[in-house]
Amino acid sequence: MFFLSIIDTVTVTFSLFIVFLITLSAINKSIKARRAYVNLLLRVFEYGRVSEGKLNLNINSRSRSKSHQLTEDANKSEKLVAVNGNTLINRDNVLLPTLTENTLDKEKFTATIKDEKISFNFEECLDYIKAGVEAIIEDEVTSRFEAEQLRSWNLLARTNRRYEFINWKITLIWVIGFTVRYSILMPLRVFVCFVGVIWLTICTAIVGYMPEGESKRQLVNDILKHCFSVLSSAISAVINYHNEENRPNTGICVANHTSPIDALVLMCDTTYSLIGQRHGGFLGILQRALARASPHIWFERAEAKDRHAVAERLKQHVSNPNNPPILIFPEGTCINNTSVMQFKKGSFEVGGVIYPVAIKYDPRFGDAFWNSSRYSMLQYLYMMMTSWAIVCDVWYLPPMYRQKEESAIDFANRVKGVIAKQGGLVDLVWDGQLKRMKPKKEWKEMQQVEFIKRLKAD
Q1: Name one Pfam family in it (predicted).
Q2: DSSP character at residue 324
Q3: pTM across the whole model
Q4: CA–CA distance from 399 to each of 247, 248, 251, 286, 322 (Å)?
């Protein structure tokens, strides 16, 4: 009887919480509990950063005392730097010559080359050697498909390779945080997610039977915002929207892509039509639920590869002013919240207005990046629900139009540059599909041609 009473108490508590949550979402009100929770976490992280900084200062002091035992020549030749606890070669210094007093000076070294009548100038190929060494150490593409490295520990995972004891206070905070995240937050979030999906399915099924018209579109917009607000509670999302006067109403909305929850983040503010491949499992349930209430474009795997069919469906959707703006992620894959990679030109060939949106997550509270080649959707949801929170900023940028005689590729690059600049992201020209495939043969040949031209010019 005692255990039954505990179960009944927990059930009633959870039920009251869900009713309270749904009520707040329905009336579009917030008690700002999540923001207060995030502010508390920031104070804890700051304390941890200061404590970790003191530890690193002590380690560096001991390292400096040991380094005095080495010769000055050895210090100049090694040029090592510590990054996030890992020792990496400093790429700025790795190829610089280490000249000492016993080494020939520049004039004598040049004279020796002239005497031997050597026509090859070694300095002219240093940039190619440097590019090769950089690719070995850390190229700018592969690192975009791994979790973003943090400047300091966020009490979730270590950013260095080995455990370092900081102090007992930090250890106690970690134990308390671990207990809260796994014994309180995770069960509560799973329950909220389960209820949210059921609630979304019920609501969209009801409005799906309503006749088409302005009243239905307005009701669908309010209901979807309400349902996604409930789902955002399952990851303790705190979303800051900027420049809301640029929020899209029609046309095509394009955004950088970090995670499957990008759509959830944007749908909490307004309704979008989505385009993508049909899925099964959890995503399939959401797709079918959304399709009942508003127009979306779902493709089968084979059909999605037909660019003409996709473009035609897009044109049909955009041509109807009653349809919501369609949300597209032109990168075609998730990038780790540090950069924007190549935008596919398909959505920029349709014509009409393009509404750029920049999304930037705060990695201190949880890594929103989905490495689909490493984690399944279930594993990813587990990581989201055991993180501290998901905090992000969304910027609505002014609408952009394709200029006369501007190619779709140039237009896509111009939009990509605007999104990267606003979100503080690195603008890269590489195709995000390099996460799953090898570089194209044409790219290698282009580099070879450029190298040959350089040699001929020299």
Answers
A1: Acyltransferase
A2: P
A3: 0.74
A4: 9, 8, 10, 29, 19
